[in-house]
């Protein structure tokens, strides 16, 4: 089993202010390494020269790419240029500058939407490019597939130990709770919170409620990433998930319980359902001895508590 010890190393977390980046920082602070970060004001990741200059100056030993333009189903469908162009620029600039400055180890984070819309479930890592993508997030998916392929290319052509993790749908503190651009969990938490405060009789759930989603708490993702960063070294990406899914209708009921909303859930089929199902096969990650720790109902309650304390005043 490969080993890339973190002790005494300089670890750059690109995207440290996002939900995933902050979880990675929380988890890496428990390791005997030096954390490197850069705010958007300090470093524009879409500018190649700036990224190259920063990498030369800071000289990280390991890089984790959690920086990306991300969003839920409506954001992806409404901003294709941002999701394709910005993500391509960010990943090409970071991966190329890392290789040029001798970064020994890099972990690139993709997303489960890279897999074909209709492929056998649970989805194995070798299902990649075996069929057409889900139209609503094809832009983000193509960008993330390109990043994965660039890491594979640097492995083959330059022998670099650059690897990729494929997380399932994530939720947790510091998520984006903007109802227009968010993913399903923060979108529902906020809307049911607002409905509870107003005493509304019902809340609309986008789509039919029939699609199924696998939800992983972002702290579990961060823990899996630190394991992969230290011990995984192969060309194939590694799926990161909890291994079980539920319907959006079931998820909405769990969110309603976490929020304590007493109203009805009404489904709005005028909104897109997106991929019918995208449960990941996580057997390769489990073979490394990793297990998730945060049960969904507990994670939803904790995320709602965080939202009330940190984000609800913007409501
Ligand atoms: O999380 P979500 O926006 O993205 O939507 P995807 C998941 C499902 O939840 C869809 C339904 O079927 C939505 O119709 N849904 C119900 C809602 N109510 C809501 C709501 O209030 N807000 C949102 N956002 N959805 C994402 C990709 O796909 O998966 C990302 O768009 C990324 O790029 C992520 O890859 C992992 O799960 O459909």
Structural commentary:
- The structure is a single chain.
- With 315 residues, the chain is α/β, with parallel strands linked by helices.
- 41% of the residues lie in helices and 15% in strands.
- The chain has 10 helices and 12 strands.
- It has helices at 19-28, 48-58, 73-78, 80-100, 138-158, 184-198, 218-231, 248-259, 283-286, 296-310; strands at 10-14, 34-36, 62-65, 105-109, 161-167, 169-171, 202-206, 212-213, 215-217, 238-240, 246-247, 264-268.
- The strands form 4 sheets. Strands 2-1-3-4-5-10 form a 6-stranded parallel sheet, sandwiched between helices. Strands 6-9 form a two-stranded parallel ribbon.
- Strand 1 (10-14), helix 1 (19-28) and strand 2 (34-36) form a beta-alpha-beta unit.
- Helix 4 (80-100) packs parallel to helix 5 (138-158), helix 6 (184-198) crosses helix 10 and helix 8 (248-259) crosses helix 10.
- It is globular.
- The model has no long low-confidence stretch (mean pLDDT 96).
Largest sheet: 6 strands, parallel
For the secondary structure, the number of strands is 12
Radius of gyration: 19 Å
What class do helices, strands and sheet pairing give?
alpha/beta
Return the average pLDDT rounded to an integer.
96
Low-confidence regions: none
Net shape: globular
The CA-CA distance between the termini, in Å, is 49 Å
Bound molecules: guanosine-5'-diphosphate-beta-L-fucopyranose
Strand content: 5-15%
Which strand order does the major sheet show? 2-1-3-4-5-10
- Helix content class: 40-55%
Helix-strand topology string: EHEHEHHEHEEHEEEHEEHEHH
**How many helices in DSSP terms?**
10
């Amino acid at each position: 089993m490969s080993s890339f010890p973190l002790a005494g190393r300089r670890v750059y977390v690109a995207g440290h202010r996002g939900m995933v980046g902050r979880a990675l920082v929380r988890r890496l602070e428990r390791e005997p390494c030096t954390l490197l970060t850069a705010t958007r004001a300090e470093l524009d990741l879409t500018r190649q020269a700036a990224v190259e200059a920063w990498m030369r100056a800071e000289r990280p030993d390991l890089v984790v790419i959690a920086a990306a333009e991300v969003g839920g189903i409506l954001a992806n469908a409404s901003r294709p240029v941002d999701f394709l162009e910005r993500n391509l620029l960010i990943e090409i600039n970071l991966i190329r500058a890392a290789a040029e400055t001798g970064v020994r180890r890099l972990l690139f984070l993709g997303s489960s939407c890279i897999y074909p819309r209709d492929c056998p479930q649970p989805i194995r890592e070798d299902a990649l490019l075996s069929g057409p993508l889900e139209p609503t997030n094809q832009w983000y998916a193509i960008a993330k597939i390109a990043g994965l392929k660039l890491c594979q290319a640097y492995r083959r052509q330059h022998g670099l130990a650059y690897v990729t993790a494929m997380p399932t749908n994530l939720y947790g503190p510091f998520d984006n709770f903007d109802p227009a651009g968010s993913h399903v969990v923060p979108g529902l938490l906020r809307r049911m919170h607002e409905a509870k405060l107003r005493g509304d009789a019902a809340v609309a759930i986008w789509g039919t409620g029939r699609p199924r989603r696998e939800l992983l708490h972002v702290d579990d993702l961060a823990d899996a990433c630190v394991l992969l960063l230290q011990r995984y070294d192969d060309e194939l990406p590694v799926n990161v998930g909890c291994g079980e899914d539920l319907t959006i209708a079931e998820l909405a009921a769990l969110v309603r319980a976490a929020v304590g909303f007493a109203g009805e859930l009404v489904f709005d089929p005028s909104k897109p359902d997106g991929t019918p199902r995208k449960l990941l096969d996580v057997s390769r990650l489990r073979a490394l001895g990793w297990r998730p720790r945060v049960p969904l109902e507990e994670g939803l309650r904790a995320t709602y508590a965080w939202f009330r304390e940190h984000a609800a005043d913007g409501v």
